[in-house]
Amino acid sequence: MNAFPPQSPLGSDELNVSEYTHRILFGGRTAESFSPPSPLQSQDYNFKDEALLLTTRKVQYRCMSQLSPAELITRGQQFINQMEPKKDPGSRNNSSVGVGGINRYLISVCVEYLQQPVALKEEGLFRVPGDSSLMKALHRDFQSHTVSKEHLRWSVMEQKDPNTVSGLLKLHLRENGLLSQQSLDQLLPHVGSRDHEMLAETVVEMLPPDELQPLLEVVSLMATIVMEPWAQDNKMNPRTLGIACGLSIFPSLDPGTATALLETLVKKNKVLQESQTIL
């Protein structure tokens, strides 16, 4: 760190924090000698190397600690503003949030992807785990409300592994809850009924639209998965889907009840859809 003389590296007005950081990181050369913008310009320059980003931020905070109170007032807010992620003004309403924070757009995009033949043929769909780190990254993007719908959709549709997308859908449903606890409490007395058609009709009658619509979308997808010719390749049936996804869709129920409820709904998907049409 011989890039600067020891006296007051930040005392000069012509040397701001970002330039100081840039010169430290790159051997004393000035920011102007580099094509990328200085590290503080996070809205323009995206570090691929997280270690470099962490190092940069540590140096930046150390630089801030050397500022006098007056300099901190004048430069500190600029530093903070530059470090904050920049939101796309047109993307604030890029998702519909329902019960428990359910993101309707995430569900729709995942269902769109998983309805493709190449995904429907994937063996163990919804049972085989996908890339956990990628699922979490995609989920953060959808939940951030700072990414455009077009980019969110593209980030899912470009995925090569259907298990990552099915895992993303399960992750979102498990963390946010597709149905409210009040709705589940109302349905529980009917879950053990042997009249599965009546159970399906009860679900349609009792659930509010903001819970019913995403549930029907997910169940309809699963009903397609267990149909031929797809089931011959993906090796999934209503029971295995119930085991794999029951607790993700109904996380507050015990495993047996959650499995049985989802299995029944998948089997009676036609009744669900027809009952909704009548209503």
TrEMBL record:
<dbReference type="GO" id="GO:0005737">
    <property type="term" value="C:cytoplasm"/>
</dbReference>
<feature type="domain" description="Rho-GAP">
    <location>
        <begin position="97"/>
        <end position="279"/>
    </location>
</feature>
<protein>
    <submittedName>
        <fullName>Probable Rho-type GTPase-activating protein 2</fullName>
    </submittedName>
</protein>
<dbReference type="InterPro" id="IPR008936">
    <property type="entry name" value="Rho_GTPase_activation_prot"/>
</dbReference>
<dbReference type="GO" id="GO:0007264">
    <property type="term" value="P:small GTPase-mediated signal transduction"/>
</dbReference>
<dbReference type="Pfam" id="PF00620">
    <property type="entry name" value="RhoGAP"/>
</dbReference>
<dbReference type="GO" id="GO:0005096">
    <property type="term" value="F:GTPase activator activity"/>
</dbReference>
<dbReference type="InterPro" id="IPR000198">
    <property type="entry name" value="RhoGAP_dom"/>
</dbReference>
